[in-house]
Design a protein that fits this description.
The structure is a homodimer.
Chain A lengths: L1 E9 L16 H13 L6 E2 L8 E11 L5 H11 L4 E9 L11 E10 L26 E3 L5 H9 L3 E4 L8 H10 L1 H7 L2 E13 L4 E9 L6 H14 L7 H7 L14 E7 L3
Helix pairs in contact in A: 1-2, 3-6, 4-5
Chain lengths: 278, 278
């Protein structure tokens, strides 16, 4: 029996998230079925964590065992031949038996993509050129944001999340969601509650042929369910002028979901990468 | 009654092409329904031509009449608010009554996008780095091509289509398709048969973060049904070494579909732009 680590990229739009659910197409389910077609074995790949319906991944990591020996690159190519084009195996490698995609994680990075529909604001708002249309080829992969944003405020808001905090104000609140969050981070939830450490949290601006894109990236030791989307929804309220960056420490201290901003939509979110020891 | 011209961009993946069909989601049908919701009038927008299922548009043009007066930018914004994100109205303008999106066309440009899965070939083929995975976020919008291509041969092949030729060898052959092709260019088919003029035909190569992309663009006075996809399928056979660019004049002269190469898949094809007099 060999222990495998795979890096997987996917377009989550047409899937009910990572985790296997009866009667629904999921990434984990597609991967398990593809393994069955390629190797005759159907281990359930363990992901580094779940992603919700509509959320994408650039570098999700999963692990599983296979009895049959197979060259790593042959496994990768065979899986890609049988998987839908929306799911691609980027890398396959044999790892020590102790490796587990979720338990061994030391850090994760998420990315959130925003497309700016406003080129400018002010007295010339009536000028049709002030508005930019989100290209249909981007719509599945961005939050197309209709209001003007103050980039400096976004940067200040992002910086205020860095450090070790109780992020309860930014965690999903409905019972089902809390359960899911707990299941996602079993050990953490027992010892840490909603305490997480954010190592880095920053925005970048990029001019593309289609318009202005904003990229938020956040690297931390773990994330609560909906946490990144709630950080983003809150920061966008700050960038828009509804809230001020200075209010964020108070939102964190409140330990109440209602103290923070709305949940940004799933289609802008990408699991960027997962880090392991050494 | 005002005559309107609109420029529309769409992701054709989830639609049964441009043209209204009972019980199916089409671009023309979505646009007509959106006009109904916005204005209370439901004219059938006349496109510059049909696009097939899975084919996209950067700048499809459609025309229709509306009795109610409405500022052009208000119409654009209201349509985009009610249309699916896969269909965007890029521009709206009132035009003279004589304008008709199909009959007034003087030239069209199509674009075909190819993603190269091979970084290199040769004795190091066993090295996993020779292969590049097509990102799932591009898969809907490219032909992900698994074999190495000779770019110089592609360029030579593209040049050999320029000029006025009978393109019957590159037209769809099944009865249904021929009917559709005729309907698409009624006047042309009567007077010209399969004769079309290609003004420009060329390939470009672009390095992106994800890998190497090839863009084929062709500008002409009109195109037969499946013509661009058949030109591309033939050129890719040349680039791959199955055929030679020098054989293309013979394929054209044969006036037989079987003389040319295969039909490239729809997802790489974009109606780029449509030109009108003055």
């Amino acid at each position: 029996m060999q222990n495998w680590k795979v890096i997987v990229s996917y377009d989550g739009t047409d899937y009910s998230g990572w985790q296997v659910q009866p009667g629904r197409a999921t990434i984990q389910g597609e991967l398990q079925a593809a393994l069955g077609r390629v190797t005759g074995e159907s281990p359930l790949p363990q992901g580094s964590g779940r992603t919700d319906a509509g959320v994408h991944a650039l570098g999700q990591v999963a692990s599983f065992g296979l009895a049959a020996p197979i060259p790593a690159d042959n496994l990768r190519r065979a899986l890609n031949r049988t998987l839908p084009a929306a799911i691609r195996v980027v890398e396959t490698m044999v790892v020590p038996a102790a490796f587990h995609a979720r338990h061994s994680t030391v850090a994760k990075t998420y990315e959130y993509r925003v497309f700016l529909e406003r080129r400018r604001t002010g007295p010339d708002e009536a000028d049709p050129s002030y508005a930019v249309v989100c290209p249909p080829f981007l719509a599945r992969y961005v939050y197309s944001y209709p209001w003007p944003l103050d980039f400096g405020e976004l940067e200040r808001a992002a910086a205020s999340f860095v450090g070790t905090h109780d992020f309860l104000s930014f965690a999903a609140t409905d019972p089902d969601e809390t359960t899911r969050s707990a299941a996602d981070n079993e050990e953490d939830m027992t010892t840490l509650g909603a305490v997480r450490t954010v190592y880095r949290s920053w925005w970048e601006q990029k001019q593309t042929d289609e318009g202005t894109m904003l990229f938020y990236r956040v690297r931390g030791n773990g994330f609560l369910h909906h946490m990144v989307r709630n950080l983003v929804g809150t920061m966008l309220d700050v960038g828009r002028g509804y809230r001020r960056a200075e209010e964020i420490p108070g939102m964190i201290a409140a330990k109440a979901r209602a103290a923070a901003g709305p949940t940004a939509p799933p289609q802008g979110l990408f699991l960027h990468s997962v880090e392991y020891p050494e």
